[in-house]
Recover the amino acids of this structure.
């Protein structure tokens, strides 16, 4: 049979394809419906948090940080409750990571604060002596791309039924309105806890430096995304 | 009719890919050495402002080295050897020639866009699938063009039966095509939001655990169908060809091939052990990873046995040295991987440096060794000149071998130590080490790895120099060598 | 055994020994089942890869190629029709049988749950240590506290407890003058003491300055008369009136408990609450340790 196949490239290719596709059909597809359900009480990310997530992606924190607490005692002691599938229902893409050069961050919002992140992102070894994490000074001056984050919220609302409120609508006007009434106040709250004067000034002017969105995202990792647990 | 007449093969496309293999290899390894050094000496994060941090550069290293260096190497070897084992010249078909050149041009556009977008931080953030949707589309086109070129060439072949290398090229084509498509299903946000924000941005079609499943179904098989399958195609051609030995066993080739095809895809969930994917899937990934040892070792053993009785070739021909050691490192990584896939071992190994250790005994010792050996073998035949310097290859071999050993031993020790420290509890049952303790302890190993990077890169520069000299100024040869490559 | 295999195995042995020496230096318990399995795995990788590949490579020296060639020939490459190497074939069969066994009998695919295992592990663990902790004396608690502190608290309070250049509370003393002043001026209501809120303006001007200096000085020397305003809630000794209001003289168990439960935002910054991560016994240990820092 194999000799026969080896002389017939078309059938050979079909054979290879069937053999490799087989596993996926059995293993991957059946789980799809089930794993997509959110755990109870979970809210989607706010637009500011989404903008932070974009910066997390852009600066590729995933290179060093995981967001997956495995069910081992040592790990739950260090990072808190093990991760549940339903907690990731609004994570597109998932950001579990595959390397922990730095610690897990899935619940970092529970045990670190705005003030702490501000110091740490500016100069990690000054906060944690011996840290090899790079300083992200540029986040204090670059402006966050809130509009793209908003576009993402609109998209996941309309395409994947992510439960956002009615004020998340396509178009420039809806965006401007949401920005003024929701995003900016949220940013101001974070900036109020920060020391950096340039950041405070920028937010007062209605601009949002990346660090503010980044911290909003980091603070959201953990209980603050549950209505009940806060 | 003219099946036995000597054919003039056309290497113009293969040559183009040879140049890019060298260029991307240098850039990718330079960045690899830089990021390795950054973990040992964090001050190096600030050389190029926001573009120079470890985190921004890491995907650049992986993408340039995988999609630049490795794919170029594979395609150089493909456009060279497919003609030969199919016994048909590309020059015989204008269509194939056109496809080959189109393939290269589109590929260059994609590669440059990839470098630029990743530097700017435009990324979908899935490992080995970082590129955003416009690039995905381009990549699909490139892949289709390559597939057309391959099947067109097969269509006009003179050699009826497909040689083993062709099996693996076909599998590489199909596997990547299927998985890439699934994993890159994403919705561009610009169009669904009434024209807001960046046009490059997209969201994944899948969320959370589902996304993880699809991603590692791809991720694992990016390893399988880029770092393994086509590299096996290379060794099945270049080792017998360079040594003049017949392949040890057809049966072994056959079982290894179909075994690999069947088992590989099941194993993807070993990247998700102890995660939130269902337990049964994890168990399957674990089991199939262990079964995978044998089909993997089958190819390596087949190649080592092909060299039975040829000790003198091993000692005298540095290209044989590269390929034999490549088989050995292939065996190492395909035993190490399965053992790391055992759930209890993965509890320690996952998230630690033991994984990059495993990765690099595969990629440095197997993938890059094979690609460099293949390029050396092709050079005299493509450029009609002997290889510029044998001494240089010998020196390169030992320097790079030392580098691989330093890389994987240092990361092996670092990873196991760190993994065990994370779990360690003191006599009172509380965690023994703070996270930062487990970071500072790694400093010496990170420094050794950085040194290994410098060595490997040095070896690569020697390789590049040797190749360039071979292309431009070494002694011309009048007749194509049958087997052993001539070298000065 | 020939020389090549010997060398390869020697290399494997060096790697294994080096690994064990390094982890032993970090006080790793290799009898822990996960650690043990990992170490066995590592040994298997090193020994098998080195040994088997060396065996085949040494065949290049000792053996010769032979066999019947297939008719086909590709670009000068021939193929022998040799049988499968027996060791390979039996190992392949063996792993397949093992896989079936594992899947059907070892860990039947639907019968195993990693969360179940976590529950079990945690339960056993807690039982083991509860007994031990019951009778822990002060010195033991203090030591235990230190290790918890280094993992959970040091990232903010610094490894020595000095507050890491003013980024968090400095445990080498109870409170700094400006902290006390700030509370006098602004009041405070976040720790959840029975007394509830402390209103702002209990003292002002020079009185406030004097009180703050006195409290920050560790409540030593002569007590300013104005402190009477404070004593009504915090007690004349500042120790909090039996837990009704915070102890402002020293770190006591009640203060620790209220801080860990509620977190705290002051002029230095915000501390998150540690409601679920710290167990009662760990809290006790932390208290002992933090008290030891200010003495
Ligand atoms: C029998 C074959 C193999 C098996 C079963 C296997 C198994 C594994 C396992 C279990 C991991 C670690 C997952 C984790 O815990 O994070 C891994 C990671 C990896 N392996 Fe292998 N491996 C094999 C062969 C190879 C080869 C030959 C290469 C390359 C030449 C390779 C490249 C990689 C890469 C790049 C990763 C890193 C993936 C990531 O980014 O997390 N593997 N492999
Ligand atoms: C000069 C030689 C090289 C050096 C110094 C080097 C260094 C590195 C470093 C430091 C990392 C990041 C590890 C971490 O995050 O902890 C890495 C990742 C990686 N490198 Fe290399 N590298 C080199 C060559 C190569 C080559 C030739 C390839 C492929 C052919 C390659 C493929 C990869 C892959 C796939 C990863 C991702 C591994 C993972 O995510 O687990 N590298 N490399
Ligand atoms: Ca990785
Ligand atoms: Ca993509
Ligand atoms: Cu894998």
């Amino acid at each position: 049979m194999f000799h026969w196949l080896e002389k017939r490239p078309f059938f050979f290719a079909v054979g290879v394809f069937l053999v490799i596709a087989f596993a996926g059909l059995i293993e991957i597809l059946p789980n799809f419906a089930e794993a997509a359900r959110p755990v109870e009480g979970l809210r989607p990310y706010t637009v500011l948090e989404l903008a932070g997530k974009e910066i997390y992606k852009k600066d590729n924190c995933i290179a060093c940080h995981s967001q997956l607490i495995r069910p081992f005692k040592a790990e739950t002691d260090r990072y808190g409750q093990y991760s549940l599938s339903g907690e990731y229902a609004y994570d597109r893409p998932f950001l579990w990571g595959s390397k922990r050069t730095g610690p897990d961050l899935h619940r970092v919002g529970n045990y670190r604060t705005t003030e702490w992140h501000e110091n740490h992102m500016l100069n990690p070894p000054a906060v944690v002596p011996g840290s090899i994490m790079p300083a992200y000074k540029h986040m204090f001056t670059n402006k966050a791309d809130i509009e793209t984050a908003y576009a993402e919220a609109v998209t996941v609302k309309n395409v994947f039924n992510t439960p956002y409120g009615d004020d998340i609508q396509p178009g420039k006007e809806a965006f401007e309105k949401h920005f003024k009434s929701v995003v900016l106040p949220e940013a101001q709250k974070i900036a109020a806890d920060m020391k950096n004067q340039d950041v405070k000034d920028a937010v007062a002017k209605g601009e949002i430096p990346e660090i503010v969105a980044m911290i909003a995202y980091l603070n959201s990792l953990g209980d603050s995304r549950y209505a009940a647990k806060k | 009719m003219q099946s036995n007449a000597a054919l003039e093969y056309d290497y113009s496309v293969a040559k183009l890919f040879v140049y890019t293999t060298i260029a991307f290899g240098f850039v990718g390894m330079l960045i690899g050495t830089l990021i390795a050094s950054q973990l040992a000496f964090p001050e190096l994060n600030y050389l190029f402002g926001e573009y120079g941090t470890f985190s921004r550069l890491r995907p650049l290293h992986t993408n340039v080295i995988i999609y630049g260096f490795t794919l170029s190497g594979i395609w150089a070897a493909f456009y060279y050897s497919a003609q030969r084992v199919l016994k048909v010249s590309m020059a015989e078909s204008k269509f194939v020639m056109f496809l080959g050149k189109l393939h290269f041009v589109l590929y260059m556009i994609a590669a440059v866009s990839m470098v630029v977008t990743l530097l700017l931080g435009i990324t979908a953030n899935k490992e080995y699938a970082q590129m955003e949707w416009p690039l995905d589309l381009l990549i699909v086109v490139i892949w289709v063009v390559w597939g057309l070129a391959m099947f067109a060439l097969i269509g006009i072949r003179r050699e009826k039966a497909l040689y083993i290398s062709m099996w693996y090229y076909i599998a590489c084509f199909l596997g990547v095509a299927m998985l890439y498509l699934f994993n890159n299903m994403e919705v561009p946000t610009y169009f669904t939001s009434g024209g807001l924000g960046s046009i490059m941005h997209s969201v994944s079609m899948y969320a959370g655990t589902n996304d993880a499943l699809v991603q590692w179904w791809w991720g694992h098989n990016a390893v399988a169908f880029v770092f393994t399958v086509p590299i096996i195609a290379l060794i099945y051609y270049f080792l017998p060809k360079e040594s003049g030995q017949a392949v040890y066993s057809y049966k072994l080739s056959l079982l290894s091939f179909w075994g690999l095809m069947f088992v590989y895809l099941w194993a993807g969930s070993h990247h998700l052990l102890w995660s939130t994917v269902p337990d049964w899937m994890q168990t399957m990934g674990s089991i199939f990873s262990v079964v995978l040892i044998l089909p993997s070792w089958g190819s390596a053993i087949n190649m080592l046995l092909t060299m039975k009785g040829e000790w003198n070739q091993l000692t005298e021909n540095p290209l044989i040295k590269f390929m034999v050691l490549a088989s050995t490192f292939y065996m190492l990584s395909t035993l190490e991987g399965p053992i790391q896939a055992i759930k209890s071992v993965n509890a320690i190994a996952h998230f630690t440096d033991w994984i990059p250790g495993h990765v690099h005994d595969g990629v440095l010792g197997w993938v890059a060794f094979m690609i460099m050996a293949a390029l050396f073998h092709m050079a005299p035949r493509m450029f009609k000149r002997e290889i510029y310097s044998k001494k240089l290859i010998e020196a390169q071999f030992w320097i790079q071998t030392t580098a691989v050993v330093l890389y994987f031993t240092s990361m092996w020790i670092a990873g196991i130590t760190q993994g065990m420290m994370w779990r360690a509890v003191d006599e009172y049952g509380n965690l023994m080490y703070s996270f930062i303790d487990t970071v500072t302890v790694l400093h010496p190993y990170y420094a050794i790895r950085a040194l290994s990077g410098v060595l490997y890169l040095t070896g690569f520069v020697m390789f590049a120099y040797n190749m360039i000299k071979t292309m431009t100024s070494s002694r011309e040869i009048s007749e194509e060598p049958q087997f052993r490559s001539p070298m000065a | 055994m020939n020389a090549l295999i010997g060398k390869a195995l020697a290399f494997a042995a060096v790697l294994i020994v080096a690994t064990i020496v390094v982890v032993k230096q970090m006080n790793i318990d290799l009898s822990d089942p996960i650690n043990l399995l990992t170490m066995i795995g590592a040994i298997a990788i090193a020994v098998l890869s080195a040994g088997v590949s060396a065996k085949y490579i040494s065949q290049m020296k000792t053996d010769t190629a032979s066999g019947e060639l297939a008719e086909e020939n590709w670009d000068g490459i021939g193929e022998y029709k040799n049988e499968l190497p027996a060791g390979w074939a039996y190992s392949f069969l063996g792993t397949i049988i093992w896989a079936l066994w594992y899947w059907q009998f070892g860990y039947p695919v639907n019968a195993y749950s990693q969360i179940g295992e976590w529950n079990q592990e945690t339960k056993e663990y807690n039982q083991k240590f509860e007994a031990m902790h019951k009778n822990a004396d002060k010195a033991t608690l203090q030591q235990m506290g230190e290790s918890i502190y280094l993992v959970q608290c040091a990232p903010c309070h610094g490894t020595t407890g000095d507050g890491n250049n003013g980024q968090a509370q400095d445990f080498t003393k109870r409170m700094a003058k400006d902290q006390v002043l700030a509370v006098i001026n602004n009041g405070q209501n976040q720790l959840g003491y029975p007394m509830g809120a402390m209103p702002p303006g209990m003292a002002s001007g020079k009185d406030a300055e004097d009180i703050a200096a006195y409290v920050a000085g560790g409540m030593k020397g002569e007590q300013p008369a104005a402190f009477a305003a404070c004593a009504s809630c915090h007690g004349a000794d500042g120790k909090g009136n039996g837990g009704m209001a915070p102890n402002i003289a020293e770190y006591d168990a009640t203060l620790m408990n209220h801080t860990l439960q509620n977190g705290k935002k002051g002029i230095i910054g915000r501390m998150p609450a540690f409601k679920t991560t710290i167990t009662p016994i760990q809290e006790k240990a932390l208290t002992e340790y933090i008290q030891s820092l200010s003495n």
Observations:
- Chain C has two domains: 3-60+87-106, 121-293.
- Residues A 98; B 127, 219, 223, 227-228, 267, 270-271, 289, 292-293, 296, 333-334, 337-338, 340-341, 346, 349-350, 355, 358-359, 362-363, 366-367 surround protoporphyrin IX containing FE (ligand 1) (CB under 6 Å).
